[in-house]
Fold each of these.
Amino acid sequence: QVHLQESGPGLVKPSQTLSLTCTVSGGSITTDYYYWNWIRQPPGKGLEWIGYIYYSGTTIYSPSFKSRTSISRDTSKNQISLQLSSVTPEDTAMYYCARQRGELGYDSFGQGTQVTVSS
């Protein structure tokens, strides 16, 4: 069974770049047809999809984040990474990585990591 674990700094200063890593075990990030997503939930709000990296390495971003987001992978470590630049307090949220099997939807989420943007 696949397991996803997010990690990164819990506190980031405004205007800095937020960097998170999702370590995947029990399955390869290059397995055919899986999408590896980053999703967040700000306090008191719903889930926001940030983007994904496909098993082939293709990346797609939400228009809301595209200008300041980069999702990458390290296949040797079986990790997915998120970088979100120019953060503001509005980027304070719980950040999740999630695996998606195409139209079948998400089948695995990490436990999430809390990120607070504050000076």
Note: The mean pLDDT is 96.
Amino acid sequence: QVQLVESGGGLVQPGDSLRLSCGASGRTFSTYAMGWFRQAPGKEREFVAQLTWSTGMTYYADSVKGRFTISKDNAKNTVYLQMNSLKPEDTAVYYCAAALGSRAFDYWGQGTQVTVSS
């Protein structure tokens, strides 16, 4: 089992930056990848970014490429999502997820709200 706790959400204006954090505990030694997903009101949950834990390779949704950066701190078992040049369409609940041996995102945090509005 892996437990995930997100933090860092809030209300910002268009063009602002925000950094989300996701702390992991439990069976973190078997982590294959960490990811960020988001769900806007009335829409399905969508992929945002992913980081392969052992190699550090990253993948991004086209909608955030060049604006968002996923990174990790091994010592703290924490993954971050740096979000720059935020747009109103980035408004959503952001979820952190972990994939272990199955390589499927089976573990999820509770989510943190990000609202981009003037």
Note: The two ends are 40 Å apart (CA to CA).
Amino acid sequence: QVHLVESGGGLVQAGGSLRLSCAASGSAFSLNAMGWYRQVPGKQRELVATFTAGGGTKYADSVKGRFTISGDNAKNTVYLQMNSLKAEDTGVYYCNGIRVTSGVLANYWGQGTQVTVSS
């Protein structure tokens, strides 16, 4: 089992910055990819940034150039540095982990952390 815990959310003014952290425990070493998603009321959860299984990164178009995903393997932690925040970045941010075992994909989610950007 994999346990993901996010931290670092909060209230920030437009133009400001926040850094989210996601600490993975349990069988975190077996994860094939980790990333960040966000969700606002009434909308589907959407990809923000992720490490791909091949070791690359992928970003939503809306955050390219402003957000950076990074990781610390020694700490089993993934970060999301968010700069130049906009009101539309407001939402609950979820850490995601994916594990593929014998062709079967398993998704793991953290509890989410609220990010509110005031305009």
Note: The CA atoms of residues 98 and 107 lie 5 Å apart.
Amino acid sequence: QVQLVESGGGLVQPGGSLRLSCAASGTIFSINSMGWYRQAPGKQRELVAALTSGGSTNYTDSVKGRFTISRDNAKNTVYLQMNSLKPEDTAVYYCNARMKRYYYTDEYDYWGQGTQVTVSS
């Protein structure tokens, strides 16, 4: 079994900050990339930010300069620091990890349960 446990969501005023965390646990051989997606009501899930094991990052344009993704490989944990939050950042944020559970298996995507982020005054 593999679990991705997210924390750090909540309600924040526009211009505020939140930090999301996601820890992967269970039988894991290697993790390629970890990242965050979000889904707002009535919209498709979209990539927010991703970080590979080699350190390459990818951000969606709307969060560049405001959000920072980081990773602790030893703890299989990924973080998303969100600054200057806007009402349009309101969504359920999902953690994603692309990993191999055993050396002989292919890579698969695993997902957390999601954490609500609400930006409102």
Note: The CA atoms of residues 4 and 59 lie 21 Å apart.
